[in-house]
Structures are given as structure tokens and as C-alpha cells.
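Sequence only, no structure available. Ideas?
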Amino acid sequence: MYKECRFSNMKSSVYQLPESKEIFIQAAKAVKYWLENIQQMQKQGIGLYIYSNTKGSGKTRLVCSMANEMIEKHQKSVKFTTSLKILDEIKSTWGERGKNAENKLISDLTYADILIIDDFGAESGKDWINEKFYGIINGRYVDKKTTIFTSNYPISRLKYDDRITNRILERSLEIPFPEESVREHIADAMKQELIKKIQGGENGKQA
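Reply:
I predicted one. C-alpha cells follow.
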């Protein structure tokens, strides 16, 4: 879905509200700086934490665009997943697959060169979830591995204990994203285009 997306072709014009355009421009400046200094960012283990309470605001498209650019321009190894996918994969190891399968999964996430976790904080804050994420995030913190998060919450509102949030806060540039759904605009435009075609006949002409 995001194969052709690049950071360079993301535009503020997709947002309709002036404040959204300004927030996007400031976010884009921060991301551009991070990408241009990616070697130093990796050396320090500094990642990004991009948040917006509004679903469909473009956070996932942004980080996927960044991933494509990091792979193509900087020859980086990037692993992308969602927080819910991580937990589903962990739960799938319980039972027949055994502890070794879970340990390998967590190890793969812990030692990935660059890890993108989409929709972080979407899951409930149960004790076992805290422990699993602490294992991954602390391991990456210790080894200064770069992690990029998207979330519907600022770091201060995450439902995790301080061991997790403090490590994310220390090693992440926290970036607010527009509170406007681009996905809704795209859906509306597609519907309007379809309506025009229906009203105008198959070729866009009146029947």
C-alpha cells in the first residue's frame, strides 16, 4: 500500500485546516533533520515518536515513507510492525511453539537495526504487556538501537509504567502531528468522483 510513498512527496496541501498545515510543516522539518543526520541519530540511539489523537492523520504513511527512504538512500535495515501485531505474535508462541519461539521473536525485535512500531499504546496496559514491551524497549535502549513510534497519545499519556515511558522519552524526538483526518478527505474525494461518473454515465457523459 505504501510502496511508492516517499518523504519527499508528502505535502501540507493534503490538509484543509491552516493549523494542520503548520503543524505538518514543523513536523516535516524535524523529520527531514533526523533523516539528514541519520548516522548521528543511530549512533546516539535517537528515534522519533510521532503522535496525533486523530486516526487517519497520515502518521503511518509518514513512517512508511521514511522507511522506504532509509532503505533506498541510506541502505538501512528497517523492520515495521504494529504494537498489536507484536502482542499477537507473542501470544501465538504460547503453547506448542514454546518459550524458545517467544524468545526469538523478542530478540528479533530487540536487535533490529531500525524498528518502527505503529499504533503504539493502542493495546490495554496489562501487566504481561508491560513486561513484554519493557523487555523489547529496554534492550533497544541499552544497545542504543533506533526506534520510531507512531501513537494516538503523547508519551505522557501512555498506559505503561515509568520504566518504559522514561526510556522512550530519553531516546525519542517527540513530534506532534495534525489533528485532521487525511483519510476522510481521500475517501470523500473518491466518493464524489464516483458519484460524478455514475451521474454522467460510464464515460462521464450524460446518458
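The chain has a mean pLDDT of 90.
Hope that gets you unstuck.
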